[in-house]
Inverse folding.
């Protein structure tokens, strides 16, 4: 692995082998998502506890302070929306020259295995890897499922992650599921967990994050369960403790409650 690739990956996955990525790219298909209407303001108190931001170039340029940012994973796929016909019909939206110009640490794109557009998104991933390897920029593949949430089982996600790794992704982002070790055991590159839809309780989030890490994930790429929470900093710090301080769900929940009690409304 070239020095540049190693350097960029080391800025994302920390010296303890773990990572906490904060995704705020939801607007590329959802528009002004609740609590991300002003993304720069939303993430300001959360940044100290994040290892990287997952963001589009538009929000990066217009809402993120270049002097006070964290490493950037640039969202480079899109072209569909919540009101469109099919979320899986994505294409590449951003060039490698743009990624270099923005000095990003990685780029990320979605693949839609098992959909009508499976071939197109997988070939887009291969094309992106081909270009990014020339510049030492890691690619994070996102195993998206669109509206077909019932596909979140270990067999399907293991298939998606392995295909992404086979095509050259350096990191794979996928959903947590039961028997998560079946996903990580079959994937030769680091796996990070997505948050998915907002959970009902704080403890529920901490439990699936803890379980995923115990079963092979290197960290999380989790947004809505943090910045849509009534106490986002408390959630961020509690999950940071699970990821980087080996806190159990019970210990993390105590951290959450302690910080919540000190937070002014």
């Amino acid at each position: 692995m070239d020095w540049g690739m190693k350097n960029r990956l080391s800025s994302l996955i920390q010296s303890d082998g773990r990572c906490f990525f904060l995704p705020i790219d939801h607007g590329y298909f959802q528009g002004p998502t609740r609590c991300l209407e002003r993304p720069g303001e939303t993430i300001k108190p959360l940044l100290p506890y994040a290892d990287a931001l997952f963001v589009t170039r538009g929000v990066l340029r217009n809402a993120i302070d270049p002097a006070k940012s964290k490493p950037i994973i640039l969202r480079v796929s899109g072209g569909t929306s919540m009101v469109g016909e099919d979320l899986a019909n994505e294409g590449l939206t951003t060039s490698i020259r743009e990624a270099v110009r923005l000095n990003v640490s990685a780029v990320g794109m979605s693949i839609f295995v098992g959909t009508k557009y499976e071939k197109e998104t997988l070939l887009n991933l291969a094309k992106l890897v081909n270009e990014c390897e020339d510049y030492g920029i890691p690619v994070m593949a996102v195993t998206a499922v669109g509206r077909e949430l019932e596909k979140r089982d270990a067999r399907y996600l293991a298939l998606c992650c392995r295909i992404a790794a086979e095509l050259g992704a350096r990191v794979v982002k996928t959903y947590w599921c039961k028997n998560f070790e079946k996903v990580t055991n079959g994937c030769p590159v680091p796996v990070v967990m997505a948050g998915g839809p907002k959970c009902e309780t704080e403890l529920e989030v901490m439990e699936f994050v803890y379980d995923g890490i115990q079963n092979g994930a290197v960290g999380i790429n989790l947004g809505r369960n943090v910045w849509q929470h009534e106490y986002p900093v408390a959630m961020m710090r509690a999950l940071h403790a699970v990821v980087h301080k080996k806190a159990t769900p019970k210990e993390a929940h105590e951290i959450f409650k302690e910080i919540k009690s000190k937070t002014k409304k």
